[in-house]
Amino acid sequence: EKGGFDHFMLKEIFEQPQTIFDCMRGRLNSQAGTITMAGIQQHADQIINASRIVIIACGTSWHAGLVAEYIFEELCRINVEVEYASEFRYRNPVINKGDVILAVSQSGETADTLVAIETAKEKGALILGVVNVVGSSISRTSHGGAYTHAGPEIGVASTKAFTAQLVVLTLIALKVAYMKGAINDSRYKGLLAELDLIPEKVAWVLNHHEQIKSIAEKYKDARDFLYLGRGYNFPVALEGALKLKEISYIHAEGYPAAEMKHGPIALVDEQLPVVVVATKDQYHEKVVSNIQEIKARKGKVIGIITEGDETSAALCDDVISVPEADEIVAPMLSVVPLQLLSYFIGVAKGCNVDQPRNLAKSVTVE
Ligand code: M6R
C-alpha cells in the first residue's frame, strides 16, 4: 500500500503533482477564466463584504493559513488574522457578526480547531472549512468551504495536505478577489495560468530528489538548523523547521529573514546550517543580503533558489533549485525540497519517519 515507496511520507510527497492536479480539477478553468467552488459561491456576498477574515488552525495547517494571509491581503484587500486555534479559543476573542472564519485542517478532527470554530459560530460568524477528510467534524460544523481532496494522508508529518491547502486557499482568494473586483483581468488570468503549471513544476523538483538526499547526508549530524524566508516564503521557513523537528528530532527554528538581526544571528557559526528560501520575488535582493550576513559569520547556507540563478547559487554552500513561478504560488514549490530534506535526514538518522515519537496523526485532545 506504500506503492513501492519505503515510507508513506515519501509516497505522499511524490503524490503531490497528482494531488495538486486533483485539487484544481473541476474547479479551475484557466481558459474560461473561471473558478467553480459552490461552497464559497453560496456565501459570496458575505465574504466579499467581510470586514475581516480570521484563519484558525494548528501546526502545518496554521502555516498554510499564514501563506493565505499574505495572498488574501494582497489580492482581495481584506484584513486577515491568523490564529492558533488553541490560543483563540481560550482568550474570549472579539467576534463580530460580519466576520468570516476560515478553519484549515487536514483531519477535520483537531479538537482545538473544532472548539474554536464552534465558539465563533455561536457568536454569529460565518464558518468556512478548508478540510481534507470528507464528512469530518470540522467540515460538518462549517457553513461552507472547500475540500482539499488530497486523499488519505497516513504519514504523521503533513505534506501533500499542506500543498493542497495552499492550492484551495489560493483558489478561494482569487475567486473572492475577482468577485470583489479587486484584481485586474490580466493579473487574474496570469495567476490561473500559473496554477495550471504547478503540478509539472512540482514533478520537476521531485525529479531532483537525489541531490537533496546528498545534501541531507552532509548535514544530518547538525545539532540545530535555522530556516529563513521572507514574504510568501516566510511561512515556508516555519513549515520546513517544523518538518525537520518532527521527522529527525533535530532542533530547528524558522524565522522571517529580517528578524535574524534581532537575535537569532547570535547562533550563527560554522556549525549551523541555515536553510534560506531565496527564490526570485520582490524580496529577493533583501534575502541575498541576509545570505551574505550568514556567510560573513561562517554559517553554512543551503539555498532554495530559482533555477538558473547562478548569482545566488555562488553565495551558498549548497543549493536546491525550483522552477521559476509567480511569488503568489511560489510556496507550493519551495516547500517541496524542504519536505524531502527532512525526510532524507530522518531516514539517514534511522528515525521512524511515518510515526515520529510522541505524535499522533490527529490531535483530538486539547
Ligand atoms: O489535522 P490538522 O490539519 O488539523 O492538524 C493540525 C496539526 O496537528 C498538524 O498539522 C501537525 O502539526 C502535523 N503533524 C504537522 O506535520
UniProtKB/TrEMBL annotation:
Its main location: cytoplasm. GO terms for molecular function: carbohydrate derivative binding; glutamine-fructose-6-phosphate transaminase (isomerizing) activity. Its EC number is 2.6.1.16. One of its GO terms (cellular component) is cytosol. It is found in: Cytoplasm. It is an enzyme of class 2 (transferase). Keywords: Aminotransferase, Cytoplasm, Glutamine amidotransferase, Repeat, Transferase. It catalyses: D-fructose 6-phosphate + L-glutamine = D-glucosamine 6-phosphate + L-glutamate. One of its GO terms (biological process) is fructose 6-phosphate metabolic process. The active site is at K361. Homodimer. Catalyzes the first step in hexosamine metabolism, converting fructose-6P into glucosamine-6P using glutamine as a nitrogen source. This is Glutamine--fructose-6-phosphate aminotransferase [isomerizing]. It comes from Niabella soli DSM 19437. The chain holds residues 247 to 612 of 612 of the full protein.
